[in-house]
Amino acid sequence: MKEFHLKALRCPSCRRSLRLSEVHLDGDEIESGKVVCEKRHSWLVDEGIPALVYPRASAKDETWIKQYDSMAENYDDLLKSYDEWLGIDMMKERERLGNYVTIEGPSKIADVSMGTGANFAALYGRFRQEMGRFDFHGLDMSHGMLRIARRKFKDLGITVGLVQGNVFNLPYQDDYFNLVIHSGGINTFSDKSRALEEMLRVVKPWGIVVVTDEGLSPDVRRTDRGKEILKTNSLFGSRPPLEHVPPMARHLEVAYVMGGTFYQMVFSK
């Protein structure tokens, strides 16, 4: 995390801006310390990651967080096994997120529930000559996943503001991002409506929200391949949570990506 990343953040308790306090730096990277707001709410920074979780996760969500923490070190290998199992190239598929990036000029992008950072790694693969115009921010409830993402971004030379935060109360400013991405997670969220409302809140007017998760297309469901996928992992039986999309969302579109094995909802503000 670098100091300029604070511009995107707000206190998750009172929604005021945050500033640094008692920080330890490694070059221009903030390694540890605190961030505080005008009302003196204080939040720890550990391994360059501010802990801005408020309120605490529900029991249901906490179960999933612990599961992701436990699998963090092997998560990327698990995702690679999806390629063979589903017959796709997931990283190439993720590069298509670049279709929603502004053609030129500065672009602020948030990846909400980012896991180990595969989406930003894919965007780097597509836009590596243009990295200077991007302002990347990544949030997850799992500190273990964020730790792996941080390591990955250092290896790639990508600058990303990482935050441990609650998807139902994003610690970001209103109307800040050009693009908000969410991949793989909403199927298990305890409050899908609230999560989608928060994603729409932090995107700029006319900005875009892209939500992707397991869910077979109607055509694939009818095939022998689809039936086998559902037998192995019931999450692929999930359907796009259209009833939870905020009423003020514009231009809602639904498509099926990754060989018809994931749904994708796209809408704007």
Describe the structure.
The protein is of the alpha/beta class. It has a single domain (79-268), classed as 3-Layer(aba) Sandwich (Rossmann fold), CATH 3.40.50. Helices cover 29% and strands 30% of the residues. The chain is built from eight helices and eleven strands. The protein has helices at residues 59-71, 75-86, 90-94, 118-127, 143-156, 192-202, 218-221, 224-232, and strands at 18-26, 29-37, 42-46, 49-52, 107-112, 134-140, 160-165, 177-183, 203-214, 250-257, 262-268. It has an eleven-stranded mixed beta sheet with strand order 1-2-3-4-7-6-5-8-9-11-10. Strand 8 (177-183), helix 6 (192-202) and strand 9 (203-214) form a beta-alpha-beta unit. The longest helix has 14 residues, at 143-156. It is globular and about 60 Å long. The mean pLDDT is 96.
Number of domains: 1
Number of strands: 11
- Spell the H/E element sequence: EEEEHHHEHEHEEHEHHEE
CATH class: Alpha Beta
Strands side by side in the biggest sheet = 1-2-3-4-7-6-5-8-9-11-10
CATH architecture: 3-Layer(aba) Sandwich
Secondary-structure class: alpha/beta
- Count of helix runs: 8
Q: What is the rounded Rg?
A: 18 Å
Oligomer: single chain
* Measured distance between first and last alpha carbons: 28 Å
CATH fold topology = Rossmann fold
Features:
11 strands; eleven-stranded mixed beta sheet; 30% strand; Rossmann fold; 269 residues; 8 helices; globular; alpha/beta
